[in-house]
Amino acid sequence: MASITWIVIILLVVVFAYYSTRMAKQADEDNLHDSGLAIVEFGRAFPNEAIRSLHTTEDGRAVFVRLHDNKAGLMRNMRSHYACHVIEPGTVRVRDLANGRGFAIEFLDAPFHNGEFTFATPTEAAEVSLWLLGNYVSAAEREAPGGAIPTV
After folding, report:
1. Per residue in 53-77, pLDDT tens?
2. Using the 8-state DSSP alphabet, how is residue 150 labeled?
3. What global pTM score does this model have?
4. Is residue 78 a contact partner of residue 62, using CB atoms and an 8 Å limit?
5. For residue 137, what is the enclosing H or E element?
6. Smallest Cα–Cα separation from 44: which of 70, 17, 73?
7. Which of 50, 89, 115, 151 could join 138 via S-S bond, C-beta 3.0 to 4.6 A?
8. Using CB atoms within 10 A of its CB, is residue 38 exposed (0-12), middle (13-18) or buried (19+)?
9. Cβ atoms of residues 105 and 96 within 8 Å
């Protein structure tokens, strides 16, 4: 009789452990797509930058930010927080991915942010790549020979 009691107790502990790990994993996956947390974290890191728009990658591990002065930023989910980075002109190399829904970025000033980023749709990837293109060269390099800044 005592052995049956111990088997039931051990079985309950195993079931509880399995259920707890599944719930914790689900909570971690839910936090990956929290745009509100990303906005708050970016605001803490760069309080003087106003966010105009954001796009989250398909897996939710990165958020690209368009800022008020047409600069771009990146927030990468590092489990319990976001690592925030404002992309400076001339410090990034971008190449497209074969699937058409993303691109690979090489940051010259922050190589730990390098990676491939895939979006839910090709339209989102194109929009973010245009943000990066606008941020690819500095405003001084974009000036036309007559001193006027060309419009796109």
Report:
1. 888 898 888 899 998 887 888 888 8
2. P
3. 0.67
4. no
5. none
6. 73
7. 89
8. buried
9. no
